[in-house]
Every structure is written in structure tokens, then in C-alpha cells.
Amino acid sequence: MKAAGHSLLAYCRPGFESECAQELAANDRRLASGGFARSERNSGFVEFVLPDPVQAQRFAEQVRWQDLTFARQLLRVMARIDDLPKSDRLGRLMPTIEAAGRRYRDAWIESPDSDAARELAGLCRSLNNALISNMKRAGLLEAESPWRLHVCLIDAQTAFIAEARCDASAEWRGGIPRLRFPSAAPSRSTLKLEEALLTLLDADEREAWLKPGMSAVDLGASPGGWTWQLVRRSIHVTAVDNGPMDPGLLDSGFVTHLREDGFRYRPATPVDWLVCDMVEQPRRVAALIGEWLAEGRCRFAVFNLKLPMKKRYDEVQLCRDTVLAALAATGRVAHWRARQLYHDREEITVFARSG
After folding, report:
1. Which of 175, 200, 215 is the last residue of a domain?
2. DSSP string of 215-235, one letter each residue
3. Is residue 180 part of a domain?
4. Which residue of 1, 22, 39, 152 has the fewest CB atoms within a 10 Å radius of its CB?
């Protein structure tokens, strides 16, 4: 067993461990915590080590998972256990869990989203059932508890035991909402917008800001994956793209297709939503979104930023500053939330609004 209570565990997309570590380090500098990152490329996780348990707890309380871009989940580590015996893994895990002196609402055994760790899915499921049974017998489960226990298997012999408040962490195992591709949608890109609306907005915001009868513009819409998500919510969409749109969407009565350049198009009257998934330099997309928001052409925006091969974290910060500066120049306050979604690849998805 290694030192307990000194670190945080962040899940991320494999290959983006460096960007996740940079983001955690930036928060560490802001808090003057004195931490450092440990990561291995393509592992799907970053361990951020703090000097002591007090600093780790402070970091966990002040760095919200919802405000991070590259981390899918953020957990406080209680212990790392190596050399788990194949014959009795729970026998090694339970003493540490019991020693925490806490009751949990639930317990998840999960693994990072790496090729190697995904092979542990069956083991995670079988161990999870046994863990729940053991915790019930030990009186460690309580339906009203605000805490969830996480056991992260990084291989068959190694586990992090961690915890998080349910209201301050992702509500899906591994931080990944499991979405099913709707057969009526014209492309798999529809899952990006569905995941973005699910993870970047809370339930109250979705209810208030995605109402039937609202208006939207979809830049780079063809064949209509993002438009489909809006139409299913009875939102009227102007789909802007020189490419063809799905015939079913055009027959819905909710879509107007304009064969125009997405960077040149401007609506005659303001709309509620702007969505954009155009393949273009991220800073150029950010400048476009900033202009729409600053000029009041839309209230809300969801857009993708296709990241470069190098200095990806720096590019995200530049794009964020571009949008915020555009609104500040007109006296508007900008709100920015960004995440690298499960359905993203070399990109991030951003929700932005003014006011």
C-alpha cells in the first residue's frame, strides 16, 4: 500500500494525460498547493499528488469537476494498493475502506478508458457485486450519504481506493455517460451534442434553455446530426451548409436549409441557440462564436474546437480568452464551460453564453 490521502485521481481521454495534468497544475498554481502530476501516456488517468492530506482535501473542495476541460472525473485518493491477490482482492481492499470511517451512498469499481484497462470490464462487474455485499454486511452503505466510493483498477493487481461527493463529481462510471445512437439520426455526430447538453448543462438549465419553439442556427450542419438533437426538442433550426441535409429533417417542418458559408452567414434576427461543428482552425471558430455572442446574435452557443497536434492546452486557453475578450469589449459577461467528451476525438466541446 502506498501513502494515503495525498493525491487526486482524474480520468481523461487516453493520449490527453499531458493536457489533463497541465490543467490540474494550473489550478494548483492558483491555490499555491505545491502539488505535481504523475501520468503515463495512454493510461487514461492522471494522479495529482499534494504535499499532505489537508492540501489534497482543500484542492478537492475548491477545484470543481464541472470547471475542468480534460478531466472526466476527479476523485480524492485514500490509498493505492499494489499486488492485489487474485484469490482475494476484496480481502485487501476492505480494511482500507473500513478504516476510512465513512458510510457511502454507493460504490463503483471501474477502470480508466484505456485499451488495457477496458479488458478489466468483466472483473470490475464481478468485484463490484461482491464489494456491495461486503459493504452491506459491514454497515458501510447508507442511502442518504452524500459520498460515493470509487475503486479504480488500473490493472488486475493494482487499485486506487478513492471517494467523491455525489454532488461534486460526474454521475457516470468513469465519467462517461453511456449513450445509444438513435437510429433515426443522420450521423453519429449527433452523440456529441447529446453528450454536451447532458454534461455541460444541469437538469434545470436544460429545462429552462431548451424549450419547444425556440430558434437555432447550425453552422456546418450537413447531414444534420446536431440539427437532429434540436429538432427532437421541437426547436426551429436554420441549417447552414453547402452540403446536403437529411431528407427526414427537411420534411419535419422544423428545418430551413441554407446553402451558404457558415463563416459569412448572419441571421436577420437574433436566435436562441448557435451550434457549430465546422472543421476549421480553433481560434477562427472561437473568434466567430465570440462575435455572435458579443453582438447579441444568439443567447447560447455549443461548438467544437478541433485541437492542433501540439500545445493543445495552450490553444484552448487562447480560444477561451478570445471569446471572453469579445464579450468584455461590449460590456457583456461571458460564461464558458468546456469538456473533452467521450464522443470527441482530437477536439473539445464548449458551451458559452453571455449575461
Report:
1. 175
2. EEEEET-TT-HHHHHHHTTT-
3. no
4. 1
pTM exceeding the 0.90 threshold for the entire prediction: yes
Give the residue numbers of the binding site for S-adenosyl-L-methionine: 189, 222-225, 241, 261, 277
- Say whether pLDDT at 2 is over 80: no
Cell digits of residue 18:
499531458
Helix or strand (DSSP H, E) at 36 = strand 36-39
Query: Is position 136 within any domain?
Result: yes
> What residue numbers does the annotated binding site cover?
189, 222-225, 241, 261, 277
Mapping DSSP to helix (H, G, I), strand (E, B) and coil, where does residue 150 land?
A: strand
The 10s digit of each residue's pLDDT in 78-88 is: 999 999 999 99
Residues marked active site are found at 306
Cell representation of residue 39: 501520468
C-alpha span between 52 and 55 (Å, rounded): 6
Q: What is the pLDDT of residue 108?
A: 97
What's the CATH code of the domain at 245? 3.40.50.150
